[in-house]
Amino acid sequence: MKRWWKESVVYQIYPRSFKDSNGDGIGDLRGIIEKIDYLADLGITMVWLNPIFSSPNDDMGYDISDYKNIMKEFGTMEDFEELLAKFHEKSIKVILDLVINHSSDEHQWFCESRTSKDNLYRDYYIWREGNGKEPPTNWGSEFGGSAWKLDDRTGEYYLHLYSEKQPDLNWENQKLREEIYDMMRYWLDKGIDGFRMDVINKLAKDQNYPNGIIEEGAKHASFRPFSVNIPKVHDYLREMNKTVLADYDIVTVGETSGVTPQIADLYVRADRQELNMLFQFEHMFIDRYPNKWKKKAWKLTDLKRVLNRWQTELHPDSWNSLYWSNHDQPRAVSRFGNDTAFREESGKMLAMLIHMMRGTPFIYQGEEIGMTNVSYENLEDYKDIEIHNLYKEEVLTGRVTEKEFRKAIDFAGRDNARSPMQWDDTKNAGFSKGEPWIKVNNNYRQINVKNALADENSIYNFYKQLIQLRKTYDVIVYGDFQCLNLEDERVYAYKRQLKDEILLVVANFTEEEIDFKLEDIANSHRAKLLLSNYPQVDETFKSTMHLKSYEARTYKIIL
Ligand code: GLC
Ligand code: CA
User: In this structure, are 275 and 195 located in the same domain?
Assistant: First the structure.
Protein backbone atom coordinates (compact mmCIF):
# COMPACT_ATOMS: atom_id res chain seq x y z
CA MET A 1 0.00 0.00 0.00
CA LYS A 2 1.20 3.51 -0.79
CA ARG A 3 2.06 5.69 2.19
CA TRP A 4 3.78 9.08 2.28
CA TRP A 5 6.32 7.90 4.83
CA LYS A 6 7.41 5.09 2.55
CA GLU A 7 8.40 7.77 0.05
CA SER A 8 10.28 9.96 2.54
CA VAL A 9 14.00 10.52 2.76
CA VAL A 10 14.95 11.36 6.33
CA TYR A 11 17.86 13.43 7.62
CA GLN A 12 18.90 12.85 11.21
CA ILE A 13 20.05 15.89 13.18
CA TYR A 14 22.05 15.57 16.39
CA PRO A 15 21.24 19.11 17.56
CA ARG A 16 24.12 19.42 20.01
CA SER A 17 26.64 19.03 17.18
CA PHE A 18 24.83 20.50 14.20
CA LYS A 19 25.10 24.30 14.39
CA ASP A 20 25.66 26.67 17.28
CA SER A 21 23.93 30.01 16.76
CA ASN A 22 25.00 31.91 19.88
CA GLY A 23 28.62 30.98 20.47
CA ASP A 24 28.22 28.94 23.65
CA GLY A 25 29.75 25.94 21.87
CA ILE A 26 26.53 23.90 21.87
CA GLY A 27 24.44 23.36 18.78
CA ASP A 28 20.88 24.67 19.14
CA LEU A 29 17.48 25.09 17.52
CA ARG A 30 18.27 28.48 15.99
CA GLY A 31 21.35 26.89 14.48
CA ILE A 32 19.12 24.30 12.83
CA ILE A 33 16.82 27.05 11.55
CA GLU A 34 19.84 28.69 9.86
CA LYS A 35 20.43 25.48 7.92
CA ILE A 36 16.93 24.70 6.69
CA ASP A 37 17.75 25.93 3.19
CA TYR A 38 20.77 23.65 3.08
CA LEU A 39 18.58 20.67 3.96
CA ALA A 40 15.82 21.63 1.55
CA ASP A 41 18.40 21.87 -1.20
CA LEU A 42 19.66 18.38 -0.45
CA GLY A 43 16.13 17.23 -1.20
CA ILE A 44 15.30 15.40 2.03
CA THR A 45 11.63 15.40 3.02
CA MET A 46 11.79 14.75 6.76
CA VAL A 47 14.11 15.45 9.67
CA TRP A 48 14.47 13.50 12.89
CA LEU A 49 15.83 15.50 15.81
CA ASN A 50 17.60 13.65 18.61
CA PRO A 51 16.12 14.60 22.01
CA ILE A 52 15.60 18.33 22.49
CA PHE A 53 13.90 18.19 25.90
CA SER A 54 15.07 19.41 29.31
CA SER A 55 17.88 17.18 30.45
CA PRO A 56 20.92 17.14 32.71
CA ASN A 57 22.67 15.48 29.75
CA ASP A 58 24.13 12.50 31.51
CA ASP A 59 23.42 10.62 28.26
CA MET A 60 23.15 13.65 25.96
CA GLY A 61 19.42 14.24 26.17
CA TYR A 62 18.36 10.61 26.47
CA ASP A 63 17.84 11.36 30.16
CA ILE A 64 14.83 13.64 30.15
CA SER A 65 13.88 15.68 33.21
CA ASP A 66 10.90 17.45 31.65
CA TYR A 67 9.19 16.01 28.59
CA LYS A 68 7.20 19.13 27.85
CA ASN A 69 10.02 21.65 27.76
CA ILE A 70 12.99 22.43 25.55
CA MET A 71 16.52 21.86 26.86
CA LYS A 72 17.70 25.33 27.83
CA GLU A 73 20.99 25.08 25.89
CA PHE A 74 18.94 24.34 22.76
CA GLY A 75 16.57 27.30 23.02
CA THR A 76 12.94 27.97 23.85
CA MET A 77 9.53 26.63 22.92
CA GLU A 78 9.12 29.65 20.63
CA ASP A 79 12.30 28.63 18.83
CA PHE A 80 10.90 25.15 18.40
CA GLU A 81 7.59 26.41 17.05
CA GLU A 82 9.41 28.61 14.59
CA LEU A 83 11.62 25.71 13.53
CA LEU A 84 8.60 23.51 12.94
CA ALA A 85 6.76 26.16 10.95
CA LYS A 86 9.83 26.88 8.81
CA PHE A 87 10.45 23.23 8.01
CA HIS A 88 6.78 22.85 7.12
CA GLU A 89 7.00 25.85 4.79
CA LYS A 90 9.58 23.83 2.87
CA SER A 91 7.37 20.72 2.98
CA ILE A 92 9.84 19.00 5.29
CA LYS A 93 8.30 16.94 8.07
CA VAL A 94 9.73 16.89 11.57
CA ILE A 95 9.83 13.93 13.91
CA LEU A 96 11.04 13.96 17.49
CA ASP A 97 12.75 11.41 19.68
CA LEU A 98 10.43 9.74 22.16
CA VAL A 99 12.41 8.41 25.12
CA ILE A 100 9.93 6.56 27.30
CA ASN A 101 11.72 3.47 28.51
CA HIS A 102 13.36 5.66 31.14
CA SER A 103 13.48 9.24 32.34
CA SER A 104 16.18 11.24 34.07
CA ASP A 105 16.59 10.70 37.80
CA GLU A 106 16.05 14.46 37.94
CA HIS A 107 12.54 14.16 36.53
CA GLN A 108 10.00 15.26 39.09
CA TRP A 109 8.37 11.81 39.00
CA PHE A 110 11.59 10.17 40.11
CA CYS A 111 12.36 12.87 42.69
CA GLU A 112 8.99 12.03 44.23
CA SER A 113 9.25 8.30 43.68
CA ARG A 114 12.45 7.90 45.64
CA THR A 115 11.21 9.76 48.74
CA SER A 116 9.17 6.94 50.26
CA LYS A 117 7.72 3.53 49.54
CA ASP A 118 4.18 4.88 49.65
CA ASN A 119 4.73 7.99 47.56
CA LEU A 120 2.12 8.40 44.81
CA TYR A 121 4.84 8.14 42.17
CA ARG A 122 6.66 5.19 43.75
CA ASP A 123 5.25 2.77 41.23
CA TYR A 124 6.18 4.92 38.20
CA TYR A 125 9.60 3.27 38.44
CA ILE A 126 10.81 -0.25 39.11
CA TRP A 127 11.77 -0.71 42.76
CA ARG A 128 12.81 -4.03 44.28
CA GLU A 129 14.32 -5.27 47.49
CA GLY A 130 17.89 -6.53 47.35
CA ASN A 131 18.80 -10.16 47.39
CA GLY A 132 20.61 -10.12 50.74
CA LYS A 133 23.50 -7.74 50.13
CA GLU A 134 23.22 -8.26 46.38
CA PRO A 135 21.04 -6.43 43.84
CA PRO A 136 17.65 -7.99 43.01
CA THR A 137 19.03 -9.68 39.87
CA ASN A 138 22.45 -10.13 38.30
CA TRP A 139 21.66 -8.04 35.20
CA GLY A 140 24.27 -5.63 33.89
CA SER A 141 23.43 -2.19 32.53
CA GLU A 142 24.10 -1.26 28.92
CA PHE A 143 26.68 1.28 30.08
CA GLY A 144 28.51 -1.06 32.49
CA GLY A 145 28.01 -2.07 36.13
CA SER A 146 24.85 -3.50 37.63
CA ALA A 147 21.47 -2.53 36.18
CA TRP A 148 20.26 -1.88 39.74
CA LYS A 149 21.13 0.98 42.02
CA LEU A 150 20.58 0.97 45.75
CA ASP A 151 18.81 4.11 46.93
CA ASP A 152 19.59 4.89 50.56
CA ARG A 153 16.38 6.81 51.21
CA THR A 154 14.24 3.67 51.23
CA GLY A 155 16.83 0.90 51.15
CA GLU A 156 15.47 -0.47 47.86
CA TYR A 157 17.02 -0.77 44.42
CA TYR A 158 15.73 0.81 41.20
CA LEU A 159 16.25 -0.63 37.74
CA HIS A 160 18.27 1.26 35.12
CA LEU A 161 19.04 -0.57 31.88
CA TYR A 162 21.19 2.44 30.92
CA SER A 163 23.04 4.86 33.22
CA GLU A 164 22.09 5.18 36.88
CA LYS A 165 20.73 8.60 35.99
CA GLN A 166 18.24 6.91 33.64
CA PRO A 167 15.82 4.96 35.87
CA ASP A 168 13.47 2.71 33.89
CA LEU A 169 9.83 3.69 33.88
CA ASN A 170 7.34 1.08 35.04
CA TRP A 171 5.04 0.40 32.09
CA GLU A 172 2.92 -1.91 34.24
CA ASN A 173 1.55 1.24 35.85
CA GLN A 174 -1.49 2.53 34.00
CA LYS A 175 -1.24 6.08 35.34
CA LEU A 176 2.30 6.33 34.06
CA ARG A 177 1.16 5.12 30.66
CA GLU A 178 -1.59 7.72 30.58
CA GLU A 179 0.85 10.50 31.45
CA ILE A 180 3.07 9.40 28.58
CA TYR A 181 0.16 9.32 26.13
CA ASP A 182 -0.85 12.77 27.29
CA MET A 183 2.69 14.04 26.69
CA MET A 184 2.70 12.51 23.20
CA ARG A 185 -0.53 14.33 22.37
CA TYR A 186 1.01 17.57 23.61
CA TRP A 187 3.70 17.35 20.90
CA LEU A 188 1.46 15.95 18.20
CA ASP A 189 -1.00 18.76 18.79
CA LYS A 190 1.81 21.23 18.13
CA GLY A 191 1.92 19.71 14.68
CA ILE A 192 4.96 17.43 14.71
CA ASP A 193 4.86 14.60 12.19
CA GLY A 194 5.78 11.62 14.31
CA PHE A 195 8.27 9.98 16.61
CA ARG A 196 11.43 7.97 16.54
CA MET A 197 10.91 5.74 19.56
CA ASP A 198 13.99 5.09 21.67
CA VAL A 199 14.68 1.44 22.67
CA ILE A 200 10.99 0.83 22.31
CA ASN A 201 11.19 -2.97 22.39
CA LYS A 202 12.46 -2.82 25.99
CA LEU A 203 9.37 -1.30 27.60
CA ALA A 204 8.04 -4.58 29.00
CA LYS A 205 10.06 -6.54 31.56
CA ASP A 206 9.71 -10.17 32.56
CA GLN A 207 7.71 -9.72 35.75
CA ASN A 208 9.48 -12.63 37.44
CA TYR A 209 12.77 -10.74 37.32
CA PRO A 210 14.88 -13.89 37.03
CA ASN A 211 18.66 -14.05 37.13
CA GLY A 212 20.44 -14.49 33.83
CA ILE A 213 23.47 -16.51 32.81
CA ILE A 214 26.83 -14.83 33.34
CA GLU A 215 29.07 -15.53 30.36
CA GLU A 216 32.70 -16.42 30.95
CA GLY A 217 34.80 -13.34 31.66
CA ALA A 218 31.73 -11.15 32.27
CA LYS A 219 30.66 -9.65 35.57
CA HIS A 220 26.96 -9.43 34.87
CA ALA A 221 24.27 -11.27 32.96
CA SER A 222 22.55 -9.75 29.98
CA PHE A 223 19.13 -8.23 30.69
CA ARG A 224 18.09 -8.98 27.13
CA PRO A 225 16.19 -12.23 27.61
CA PHE A 226 14.06 -10.49 30.26
CA SER A 227 13.57 -7.06 28.78
CA VAL A 228 13.75 -7.23 24.98
CA ASN A 229 10.73 -8.17 22.86
CA ILE A 230 8.76 -9.42 25.87
CA PRO A 231 5.24 -10.17 24.50
CA LYS A 232 3.60 -7.57 26.68
CA VAL A 233 5.38 -4.78 24.81
CA HIS A 234 2.88 -5.35 22.00
CA ASP A 235 -0.03 -4.71 24.37
CA TYR A 236 1.51 -1.38 25.29
CA LEU A 237 2.14 -0.39 21.70
CA ARG A 238 -1.35 -1.33 20.63
CA GLU A 239 -2.80 0.62 23.50
CA MET A 240 -0.61 3.59 22.54
CA ASN A 241 -1.72 3.31 18.95
CA LYS A 242 -5.39 3.19 19.85
CA THR A 243 -5.16 5.94 22.44
CA VAL A 244 -2.89 8.36 20.57
CA LEU A 245 -1.25 7.48 17.27
CA ALA A 246 -4.36 6.45 15.35
CA ASP A 247 -5.75 9.97 15.66
CA TYR A 248 -2.93 11.57 13.67
CA ASP A 249 -1.46 11.21 10.18
CA ILE A 250 2.07 10.65 11.39
CA VAL A 251 4.97 8.24 11.16
CA THR A 252 6.53 6.12 13.90
CA VAL A 253 9.94 4.50 13.78
CA GLY A 254 10.89 2.12 16.56
CA GLU A 255 14.50 1.63 17.62
CA THR A 256 14.70 -2.10 18.17
CA SER A 257 17.98 -3.91 18.44
CA GLY A 258 17.55 -7.68 18.68
CA VAL A 259 14.85 -8.17 16.06
CA THR A 260 14.70 -10.48 13.05
CA PRO A 261 12.37 -9.76 10.12
CA GLN A 262 9.89 -12.20 11.65
CA ILE A 263 9.90 -10.39 14.99
CA ALA A 264 9.80 -7.06 13.18
CA ASP A 265 6.52 -8.04 11.50
CA LEU A 266 4.94 -8.16 14.96
CA TYR A 267 5.75 -4.48 15.42
CA VAL A 268 5.16 -3.07 11.96
CA ARG A 269 2.81 -5.23 9.90
CA ALA A 270 0.02 -2.81 9.03
CA ASP A 271 -2.81 -4.89 10.52
CA ARG A 272 -1.02 -5.10 13.88
CA GLN A 273 -1.64 -1.37 14.40
CA GLU A 274 1.51 -0.74 16.36
CA LEU A 275 4.35 1.09 14.56
CA ASN A 276 5.21 1.95 10.94
CA MET A 277 8.84 0.91 10.70
CA LEU A 278 11.86 -0.07 12.76
CA PHE A 279 15.57 0.42 12.98
CA GLN A 280 16.93 -3.10 12.96
CA PHE A 281 20.57 -3.69 13.95
CA GLU A 282 21.64 -6.91 12.29
CA HIS A 283 23.98 -5.18 9.83
CA MET A 284 25.48 -3.20 12.70
CA PHE A 285 26.91 -6.41 14.10
CA ILE A 286 28.63 -7.91 11.09
CA ASP A 287 31.97 -6.35 12.02
CA ARG A 288 31.87 -6.92 15.80
CA TYR A 289 32.13 -9.95 18.03
CA PRO A 290 31.55 -10.91 20.83
CA ASN A 291 30.63 -7.34 21.83
CA LYS A 292 30.48 -3.93 20.23
CA TRP A 293 34.08 -3.05 21.14
CA LYS A 294 35.67 -6.04 19.43
CA LYS A 295 36.38 -5.77 15.75
CA LYS A 296 35.76 -8.83 13.65
CA ALA A 297 36.76 -9.37 10.03
CA TRP A 298 33.62 -9.34 7.90
CA LYS A 299 32.84 -10.60 4.46
CA LEU A 300 30.62 -9.03 1.83
CA THR A 301 28.53 -12.20 1.81
CA ASP A 302 27.75 -11.63 5.52
CA LEU A 303 26.48 -8.16 4.74
CA LYS A 304 24.47 -9.41 1.79
CA ARG A 305 22.80 -12.13 3.77
CA VAL A 306 21.66 -9.63 6.38
CA LEU A 307 20.57 -6.82 4.06
CA ASN A 308 18.94 -9.23 1.63
CA ARG A 309 16.83 -10.85 4.25
CA TRP A 310 15.56 -7.47 5.42
CA GLN A 311 14.64 -6.80 1.81
CA THR A 312 12.83 -10.04 1.18
CA GLU A 313 11.63 -11.64 4.42
CA LEU A 314 9.46 -8.87 5.83
CA HIS A 315 5.76 -9.34 5.25
CA PRO A 316 4.54 -7.30 2.24
CA ASP A 317 2.46 -5.16 4.62
CA SER A 318 5.48 -4.38 6.80
CA TRP A 319 7.99 -1.64 6.15
CA ASN A 320 11.66 -1.13 6.85
CA SER A 321 14.14 1.70 7.35
CA LEU A 322 17.54 1.90 5.65
CA TYR A 323 20.63 3.31 7.33
CA TRP A 324 24.41 3.04 7.64
CA SER A 325 24.93 5.32 10.58
CA ASN A 326 23.43 7.33 13.40
CA HIS A 327 24.54 9.07 16.61
CA ASP A 328 25.39 5.72 18.25
CA GLN A 329 27.53 4.27 15.46
CA PRO A 330 30.91 5.04 13.98
CA ARG A 331 30.99 6.92 10.67
CA ALA A 332 29.87 4.75 7.76
CA VAL A 333 32.70 5.56 5.38
CA SER A 334 35.31 4.75 8.05
CA ARG A 335 33.54 1.55 8.95
CA PHE A 336 32.29 -0.03 5.74
CA GLY A 337 34.23 1.95 3.13
CA ASN A 338 37.70 3.44 2.89
CA ASP A 339 38.10 6.81 4.59
CA THR A 340 41.50 7.63 3.10
CA ALA A 341 42.35 6.96 -0.55
CA PHE A 342 38.79 6.19 -1.65
CA ARG A 343 36.70 8.26 0.72
CA GLU A 344 34.67 9.89 -2.03
CA GLU A 345 34.21 6.75 -4.12
CA SER A 346 33.36 4.43 -1.24
CA GLY A 347 31.13 7.02 0.44
CA LYS A 348 29.08 7.27 -2.74
CA MET A 349 29.07 3.54 -3.33
CA LEU A 350 27.67 2.90 0.16
CA ALA A 351 25.07 5.58 -0.36
CA MET A 352 23.90 4.14 -3.65
CA LEU A 353 23.78 0.61 -2.33
CA ILE A 354 21.36 1.52 0.42
CA HIS A 355 19.39 4.32 -1.24
CA MET A 356 18.38 2.07 -4.11
CA MET A 357 16.92 -0.50 -1.70
CA ARG A 358 13.34 -0.91 -0.53
CA GLY A 359 12.63 1.04 2.67
CA THR A 360 12.83 4.58 3.99
CA PRO A 361 16.42 5.88 3.93
CA PHE A 362 17.90 7.81 6.86
CA ILE A 363 20.95 10.02 6.37
CA TYR A 364 22.92 10.91 9.48
CA GLN A 365 24.29 14.45 9.60
CA GLY A 366 27.71 14.67 7.96
CA GLU A 367 27.27 11.38 6.12
CA GLU A 368 26.31 13.41 3.05
CA ILE A 369 29.77 15.02 2.99
CA GLY A 370 31.62 11.85 3.94
CA MET A 371 32.63 12.80 7.47
CA THR A 372 34.98 10.30 9.10
CA ASN A 373 35.67 8.90 12.56
CA VAL A 374 37.57 10.99 15.09
CA SER A 375 40.44 10.09 17.34
CA TYR A 376 41.05 12.52 20.18
CA GLU A 377 44.25 12.97 22.11
CA ASN A 378 42.98 12.98 25.66
CA LEU A 379 40.37 10.96 27.47
CA GLU A 380 38.70 14.24 28.54
CA ASP A 381 38.12 15.13 24.89
CA TYR A 382 35.58 12.30 24.79
CA LYS A 383 32.17 13.22 26.17
CA ASP A 384 30.17 10.01 25.92
CA ILE A 385 29.20 8.38 29.22
CA GLU A 386 29.55 4.97 27.60
CA ILE A 387 33.23 5.64 26.86
CA HIS A 388 34.00 6.96 30.33
CA ASN A 389 32.21 4.10 32.05
CA LEU A 390 34.10 1.63 29.90
CA TYR A 391 37.35 3.26 30.96
CA LYS A 392 36.47 2.95 34.64
CA GLU A 393 35.29 -0.63 34.32
CA GLU A 394 37.97 -1.99 32.06
CA VAL A 395 41.12 0.14 32.21
CA LEU A 396 41.06 1.24 35.85
CA THR A 397 40.47 -2.34 36.96
CA GLY A 398 43.34 -3.57 34.81
CA ARG A 399 41.17 -5.80 32.61
CA VAL A 400 42.33 -4.10 29.41
CA THR A 401 45.28 -1.89 28.61
CA GLU A 402 45.05 1.79 27.73
CA LYS A 403 46.10 0.89 24.20
CA GLU A 404 43.40 -1.74 23.75
CA PHE A 405 40.86 0.72 25.09
CA ARG A 406 41.91 3.38 22.59
CA LYS A 407 41.62 0.88 19.79
CA ALA A 408 38.13 -0.05 20.93
CA ILE A 409 36.82 3.51 21.10
CA ASP A 410 38.46 4.51 17.82
CA PHE A 411 36.60 1.61 16.30
CA ALA A 412 33.22 1.75 17.99
CA GLY A 413 32.95 4.81 20.25
CA ARG A 414 29.80 6.87 19.82
CA ASP A 415 31.70 10.17 19.82
CA ASN A 416 32.89 9.23 16.34
CA ALA A 417 29.49 10.37 15.16
CA ARG A 418 29.14 13.30 17.54
CA SER A 419 32.00 15.58 16.55
CA PRO A 420 30.65 18.88 15.20
CA MET A 421 29.20 19.14 11.72
CA GLN A 422 31.86 20.49 9.35
CA TRP A 423 30.39 23.51 7.58
CA ASP A 424 33.48 25.26 6.23
CA ASP A 425 37.22 25.71 6.67
CA THR A 426 37.06 28.53 9.22
CA LYS A 427 37.72 28.11 12.95
CA ASN A 428 35.78 25.20 14.49
CA ALA A 429 34.63 24.19 11.02
CA GLY A 430 32.07 26.99 11.12
CA PHE A 431 30.12 25.07 13.75
CA SER A 432 30.57 27.59 16.56
CA LYS A 433 32.23 30.91 17.28
CA GLY A 434 32.93 29.70 20.83
CA GLU A 435 34.67 26.63 22.21
CA PRO A 436 32.76 23.58 20.91
CA TRP A 437 31.44 21.18 23.58
CA ILE A 438 33.31 18.44 21.75
CA LYS A 439 36.31 18.86 19.49
CA VAL A 440 36.07 19.25 15.76
CA ASN A 441 37.63 16.56 13.59
CA ASN A 442 40.90 18.01 12.36
CA ASN A 443 40.20 17.06 8.74
CA TYR A 444 37.57 19.83 8.54
CA ARG A 445 39.63 22.04 6.24
CA GLN A 446 39.29 19.43 3.54
CA ILE A 447 35.98 17.77 4.44
CA ASN A 448 33.25 20.38 4.81
CA VAL A 449 29.94 21.52 3.36
CA LYS A 450 31.40 24.56 1.62
CA ASN A 451 33.77 22.41 -0.42
CA ALA A 452 31.05 19.85 -1.09
CA LEU A 453 28.67 22.46 -2.47
CA ALA A 454 31.34 23.88 -4.74
CA ASP A 455 32.24 20.53 -6.29
CA GLU A 456 29.69 19.06 -8.67
CA ASN A 457 31.18 15.59 -8.14
CA SER A 458 31.04 15.71 -4.35
CA ILE A 459 29.46 13.07 -2.15
CA TYR A 460 26.86 15.71 -1.28
CA ASN A 461 25.84 16.15 -4.89
CA PHE A 462 25.69 12.40 -5.31
CA TYR A 463 23.26 12.12 -2.38
CA LYS A 464 21.20 14.83 -3.99
CA GLN A 465 20.99 12.78 -7.18
CA LEU A 466 20.09 9.61 -5.30
CA ILE A 467 17.25 11.43 -3.57
CA GLN A 468 16.01 12.77 -6.90
CA LEU A 469 16.02 9.26 -8.35
CA ARG A 470 13.86 8.03 -5.48
CA LYS A 471 11.41 10.83 -6.18
CA THR A 472 11.35 9.92 -9.88
CA TYR A 473 11.08 6.14 -9.98
CA ASP A 474 8.36 4.35 -8.06
CA VAL A 475 10.29 1.14 -8.34
CA ILE A 476 12.87 2.44 -5.84
CA VAL A 477 10.23 2.83 -3.17
CA TYR A 478 7.80 0.07 -3.98
CA GLY A 479 9.60 -2.48 -6.15
CA ASP A 480 10.60 -6.03 -5.27
CA PHE A 481 14.20 -6.86 -4.50
CA GLN A 482 16.34 -9.66 -5.80
CA CYS A 483 20.03 -10.18 -5.08
CA LEU A 484 21.84 -11.39 -8.20
CA ASN A 485 25.11 -12.72 -6.81
CA LEU A 486 24.83 -14.05 -3.27
CA GLU A 487 28.21 -15.78 -3.18
CA ASP A 488 30.34 -13.01 -4.69
CA GLU A 489 32.71 -11.53 -2.07
CA ARG A 490 33.57 -8.43 -4.05
CA VAL A 491 30.54 -7.11 -5.88
CA TYR A 492 27.00 -6.60 -4.60
CA ALA A 493 24.48 -6.72 -7.45
CA TYR A 494 20.73 -6.57 -7.15
CA LYS A 495 17.63 -5.97 -9.15
CA ARG A 496 14.52 -3.99 -8.27
CA GLN A 497 11.28 -4.53 -10.11
CA LEU A 498 7.84 -2.96 -10.13
CA LYS A 499 5.75 -4.29 -13.00
CA ASP A 500 7.81 -3.41 -16.09
CA GLU A 501 10.05 -0.91 -14.32
CA ILE A 502 13.36 -2.65 -13.58
CA LEU A 503 16.53 -1.28 -12.02
CA LEU A 504 19.89 -2.93 -11.75
CA VAL A 505 22.38 -1.87 -9.06
CA VAL A 506 25.99 -3.01 -9.12
CA ALA A 507 28.50 -2.04 -6.40
CA ASN A 508 32.16 -2.93 -6.14
CA PHE A 509 33.07 -3.21 -2.46
CA THR A 510 36.81 -3.40 -3.05
CA GLU A 511 39.72 -1.23 -4.13
CA GLU A 512 40.44 -3.59 -6.98
CA GLU A 513 39.30 -3.11 -10.53
CA ILE A 514 37.00 -5.95 -11.42
CA ASP A 515 35.61 -7.44 -14.59
CA PHE A 516 32.16 -8.29 -13.42
CA LYS A 517 29.97 -10.64 -15.44
CA LEU A 518 26.22 -10.41 -15.33
CA GLU A 519 25.22 -12.47 -18.30
CA ASP A 520 21.57 -13.27 -17.80
CA ILE A 521 20.35 -9.74 -17.60
CA ALA A 522 22.92 -8.09 -19.77
CA ASN A 523 22.56 -10.40 -22.74
CA SER A 524 18.88 -10.08 -23.13
CA HIS A 525 18.35 -6.37 -22.52
CA ARG A 526 19.46 -2.89 -23.18
CA ALA A 527 19.88 -0.52 -20.31
CA LYS A 528 20.27 3.13 -19.55
CA LEU A 529 22.77 4.29 -16.96
CA LEU A 530 20.93 6.42 -14.39
CA LEU A 531 23.79 7.21 -12.04
CA SER A 532 27.35 6.20 -11.30
CA ASN A 533 29.97 7.37 -8.83
CA TYR A 534 32.64 7.91 -11.48
CA PRO A 535 32.36 10.92 -13.74
CA GLN A 536 33.32 9.05 -16.88
CA VAL A 537 31.74 5.69 -17.42
CA ASP A 538 31.36 3.75 -20.58
CA GLU A 539 27.61 3.95 -20.89
CA THR A 540 27.08 0.97 -23.16
CA PHE A 541 25.58 -1.91 -21.28
CA LYS A 542 27.63 -5.07 -21.62
CA SER A 543 27.52 -8.49 -20.06
CA THR A 544 30.99 -7.87 -18.62
CA MET A 545 31.36 -4.60 -16.81
CA HIS A 546 34.71 -3.19 -15.94
CA LEU A 547 34.29 -1.76 -12.44
CA LYS A 548 36.83 0.62 -10.94
CA SER A 549 37.64 0.83 -7.21
CA TYR A 550 34.38 1.08 -5.25
CA GLU A 551 32.51 1.80 -8.44
CA ALA A 552 28.73 1.69 -8.19
CA ARG A 553 26.15 2.03 -10.96
CA THR A 554 22.41 2.05 -11.27
CA TYR A 555 20.87 1.12 -14.60
CA LYS A 556 17.32 1.17 -15.82
CA ILE A 557 16.61 -1.89 -17.91
CA ILE A 558 14.86 -1.23 -21.19
CA LEU A 559 12.49 -4.04 -22.02
C1 GLC B 1 19.22 4.59 22.34
C2 GLC B 1 19.86 5.89 21.92
C3 GLC B 1 21.15 6.05 22.65
C4 GLC B 1 20.86 6.10 24.12
C5 GLC B 1 20.03 4.90 24.58
C6 GLC B 1 19.41 5.14 25.93
O7 GLC B 1 19.94 3.48 21.97
O8 GLC B 1 20.00 5.93 20.53
O9 GLC B 1 21.86 7.19 22.24
O10 GLC B 1 22.05 6.13 24.86
O11 GLC B 1 18.97 4.63 23.70
O12 GLC B 1 18.38 6.07 25.83
CA1 CA C 1 24.32 27.42 21.31
Answer: yes
